[in-house]
Amino acid sequence: MSRIVVQEDRCKGCLLCTTVCPVDIIVQSDRFNASGYKVAEVPEADADKCTGCASCATICPDVAIKVYKTPKKKKGE
Amino acid sequence: MSEMNEKLVFDRPKSVIDRATHYCPGCHHGVAHRLVGELLDEMDLAEKVILTTSIGCSVFLYNYLNVDAVEAPHGRAPAVATGIKRARPEHFVFTYQGDGDLASIGMAEIIHAANRGEKISVIFVNNTVYGMTGGQMAPTTLIGQTTTTTPAGRCMTHEGAPIRMTEIIASLGGVAYAARGSLDNVKNIRKAKKYIKKAFEFQLSGTGFGFVELLSACPTNWKMTPLAANERIQKEMIPYFPLGVFKDVSEEGGIC
Amino acid sequence: MTKQAERIFVKGNEAIARGALAAKCKCFFGYPITPQNDIPEFMSSAIIKAGGDFVQAESEIAAANMLLGAGAAGVRAMTSSSSPGVSLKQEAISYMAGSEIPAVVVNMNRGGPGLGDIGPAQGDYYQSTRGGGHGDYRHFTLGPATVQEAYDLTIRAFDIAFRHRTPVLILGDAILGQMKEPIVPWEPENIDDEPGRDWCLDGKTPDREKRLLKSLFLQEGELAGQNKHLQAKYDAWEELTECEQFETEDAELVICAYGSIARIAKSAVRKFRSQGKKVGLFRPITLYPFPSKELKALAEQGKRFLTIEQNLGQMLDDVRLAIRTVADSDFYAIYPGNLPTPDELEEPILNSLEGK
Ligand SMILES: Cc1ncc(C[n+]2csc(CCOP(=O)(O)OP(=O)(O)O)c2C)c(N)n1
Ligand code: SF4
Ligand code: SF4
Ligand code: SF4
């Protein structure tokens, strides 16, 4: 399973990341950060859909997204 | 949950300082900074870099990149970078300039640095407005685009046509590489990074001047949401400012 | 210490170029303008032979900004020009003063305002000594009067620039630039030992913080702090003034003049002395900082003063400021174009001597 971590204090809520996710799992949360921006998040329910493609991080202007990828287990492992 | 063998595949490049930027939400300066930072890391350049910042929203780039830097007067970054490179030819010298800075007040400096074939690299952020001063018309403002100094829209007969810098730069003798990329989608961002890398390589090999224009959004002064601003790049900018490599001397047999 | 060399016979312009090379100037950025063209022309080959680099810039604006870049990199560099071109350099000079970047700028003053003419003039004194660009700053200004002094002061200019992290201006004129005189070239020693090279941009290594040279200070109180810092630096320069005093000791009238005009005034002083008339010459060598203390000391001895300049009265302000509590100065203006002969100065000098 892959996943992203949004560094919420850096997110400016621009939502550019939400437009590039191939599995469409990033949404705007209801949370405001200290700067008053509504931060982006991947809802718990969709977390396992992340492919680790890093598209969201690539377009994020604020380097607010870290991407972790877990290599797919080969059969028989 | 997070497995033991998971790998961090995307993180802040070391050369980009871990701090919040002053940029507006959805401003592409941040993407451009990160691409430069990634390349400084990947090409192991950070210790060799002397950065020349220009005047515009990106003047504070020196607060975001962990490298030695000097602040040039408005438009003069290519001349300042020329002085640095002539004084320290072994160092890696690049400028980062907006479109008001580079294509208006600094037109003479960019043209002549390029034409002399200075062994420097130029990152040119084209967002079709003067960002820092509040959204006035820039030399790159599109026909019909409203700005604070073209309230009825830029008019060809009154303000002239938007300047295509990369095409002009590509026509000059000393230029090794000139390309125009865009920061509006993942594919374009990855391609833009390749362009910047190529421009950097031409400096490292001592071949000549490298120039990369990056089409970028300024949601604030375009008075658009970040998403709408991002879309404007595809819809309005790319048709007038076509993407691609306009000069690459490695494909032409070099500069003599 | 100096290394003695053969005497050579050169123009003032060439002496400045040679002085720069002796001071290990590594980069020269020029743009053509009369009457200083000999400097870039000489440098275009000589500095490259010496292992440095030369750029004929696209404008004086660009040349001065190249200078800013080389200075930021901690490398000795120079640009030269004449009045209209020096106006264009003021932008970069202001930035260099604000960012404390060392550099040497030469102005072979010609007639103005506007395009003026290409003859000698001193109309740029204000611009040279008040911080000619925007903002509140000063820089060292040196006013050579002979070809040898042009050579010597160029070497000094580099030393001052790097010691005090400031642009330094050498203010000559069309006469000094074109005049040929014998000089004895010499080379300074230990020029790489100047203190405080720990500010220059030479690549951030892991063992040090990144360095930044800038003049933008937006945080609350930051710019005021920078201005105070600069002011303290300029105040400390008051100890570094230099002047020549010729026959001032028993003089009743002291002529105040600088550069080429001071030379002519000196000839006039000699003539008056041969007639037993008590006239002397006070010649500032550092135009900024101005040698006010030295001048005031003369005023306190009850002497009269006559300032002679090839302008409408600019250094006159500095003379009056220096002596204002004890004396005043007469003024004689020479208009730009040709230089007067010593004889032409006789009448105004006599008038002042007799208190007319
Ligand atoms: C000599 C001078 N003129 C004008 C300005 C004011 N000024 C500051 S930034 C700027 C324009 C910046 O626009 P651009 O280069 O397009 O960069 P952006 O802010 O859009 O990134 C101007 C005109 C200045 N600082 N100096
Ligand atoms: S890494 Fe790819 S799949 Fe995962 S959230 Fe980001 S864009 Fe979506
Ligand atoms: S792109 Fe970055 S800043 Fe914008 S909403 Fe997504 S995480 Fe936040
Ligand atoms: S004004 Fe425009 S260019 Fe400047 S930070 Fe905001 S969005 Fe970016």
Describe this structure in words.
The complex is a heterotrimer of chains A (77), B (256) and C (356). With 77 residues, chain A is mostly beta strands. Chain A has a single domain, classed as 2-Layer Sandwich (Alpha-Beta Plaits), CATH 3.30.70. Chain A contains 1 helix and 4 strands; from the N terminus they run E-E-E-H-E. In chain A, the strands form 2 sheets. A two-stranded antiparallel ribbon of chain A has the order 1-4. In chain A, strands 2-3 form a two-stranded antiparallel ribbon. The mean pLDDT of chain A is 93. Chain B is α/β, with parallel strands linked by helices and 256 residues long. Chain B has one domain (29-250): Rossmann fold. Chain B is built from 10 helices and 10 strands. In chain B, helix 1 crosses helix 8 and helix 3 (77-87) packs parallel to helix 5. Chain B starts with 6 loop residues before the first strand and ends in an 8-residue tail after the last strand. By secondary structure, chain C is an alpha/beta fold. The termini of chain C are far apart. Chain C is globular. In chain C, 58% of the residues are buried. Chains in contact: A-B, B-C. The interface between B and C is large, with 33 and 41 residues. The complex binds thiamine diphosphate and iron/sulfur cluster (SF4) (3 copies). The site of one iron/sulfur cluster has 13 residues of chain A, from loops.
